[in-house]
Design brief:
Keywords: Membrane, Transmembrane, Transmembrane helix. The chain crosses the membrane at residues 53-72, 78-101, 113-130, 136-155, 164-183, 189-209. It comes from Brochothrix thermosphacta (Microbacterium thermosphactum). This is Zinc ribbon domain-containing protein. It is a single chain. This protein has 225 residues and is mainly α. Helices cover 60% and strands 2% of the residues. The protein has eight helices and two strands; from the N terminus they run E-E-H-H-H-H-H-H-H-H. The chain has helices at residues 50-71, 80-99, 105-126, 132-155, 164-173, 176-182, 190-209, 212-222; strands at residues 2-3, 10-11. Strands 1-2 form a two-stranded antiparallel ribbon. Strand 1 and strand 2 form a beta hairpin. The longest helix is centred in the middle third of the chain and has 24 residues, at 132-155. It is elongated and about 120 Å long. The N and C termini lie far apart (100 Å). The model is unreliable at 28-33 (pLDDT under 50).
Length: 225
C-alpha cells in the first residue's frame, strides 16, 4: 500500500496518482538541507628547523668570540677567534659532508682531508706559524687518508674501480707539501717523502693485485695503451 502525503489515505500500489486529489504517488526525494560552505583557513606556522637553530648559535658564538678577541688584544695578541670561526665552519662541513651526505666515501675522505689540512694550517698561522702543520700534520694526514682509502678498497674489492680516481687524486694532493718545502713554508722533508712513497706503493699494489676489471677501468679512465 502507498500513502498519499496530502490525503493521508492508503492507496493500492498499482495507482500512480491519488484517486481523491490526483497527487502523484511517486516517492519524492527528500530535500537535502544545504549548508553554506565555510572554508577553514589554517594559519601556517613555520617550524624552526634544527639547521636554523645551529646556524644562529654558530653565528652567535663567532661574533662573541670575535668581540672578546678584539677587546683583549692588548692582553693576548693571538687571533684565536679565527680558529673558533674556522672550527665551527668545519663542523658544518662534517655534518653536511659526512653525516648527511650520500656520495662515495672516497670523495668524502678527500673532501675532509683538504678542509682539515687547511684548518690545521690556519691554527698554525694564528699561533705564530711554527710550521708544525706543514712539516708533519698535513703530510701525515695525507698518508692517513690514503691508508683509509686503501682499507675501503680492500673491504669492497669488487668496487675498486670506484676508488681509482680518489686514490690517484690523493697521490697528486700529497705532492703539494713538496711545494710547501720548495717555497720555504716547511723545513722538514721526510714526512712528505714518506707520504708520496706510501701513495705510490698503494697504487702499485692495487694494480698488481687487482683483477682484469680493475685494469680495464684504469685504461678507460686514464687512456693508457
Amino acid at each position: 500500500m502507498t500513502k498519499c502525503i496530502r490525503c493521508h489515505v492508503n492507496i493500492a500500489e498499482q495507482h500512480l496518482h491519488c484517486p481523491l486529489c490526483g497527487h502523484s504517488l511517486k516517492e519524492e526525494k527528500s530535500a537535502q538541507t544545504t549548508y553554506p560552505d565555510y572554508t577553514i583557513h589554517y594559519k601556517k606556522v613555520n617550524r624552526i628547523s634544527k639547521e636554523k637553530i645551529f646556524l644562529f648559535l654558530s653565528i652567535s658564538v663567532v661574533m662573541v668570540a670575535l668581540t672578546i678577541n678584539l677587546l683583549t688584544l692588548n692582553l693576548n695578541s693571538v687571533f684565536w677567534s679565527v680558529i673558533v670561526g674556522f672550527g665551527i665552519f668545519y663542523l658544518w662541513i662534517v655534518i653536511k659532508g659526512t653525516l648527511l651526505a650520500k656520495n662515495h666515501i672516497g670523495k668524502r675522505l678527500l673532501y675532509h682531508y683538504i678542509w682539515l689540512a687547511l684548518f690545521f694550517f690556519v691554527i698554525d698561522l694564528c699561533l705564530g706559524f711554527e710550521q708544525w702543520s706543514t712539516n708533519y700534520t698535513i703530510p701525515l694526514l695525507g698518508m692517513g687518508a690514503t691508508f683509509l682509502m686503501t682499507l675501503i678498497a680492500l673491504w669492497k674489492r669488487s668496487l675498486w674501480q670506484d676508488d681509482i680516481g680518489y686514490i690517484f687524486a690523493m697521490f697528486f694532493i700529497n705532492l703539494c707539501p713538496m711545494l710547501l718545502f720548495i717555497f720555504n713554508l716547511s723545513s722538514v722533508i721526510w714526512p712528505t717523502i714518506a707520504t708520496i712513497v706510501y701513495s705510490l706503493i698503494t697504487i702499485i699494489g692495487m694494480i698488481i693485485f687487482s683483477d682484469k676489471q680493475f685494469k680495464a677501468e684504469l685504461v678507460k679512465r686514464f687512456h693508457f695503451r
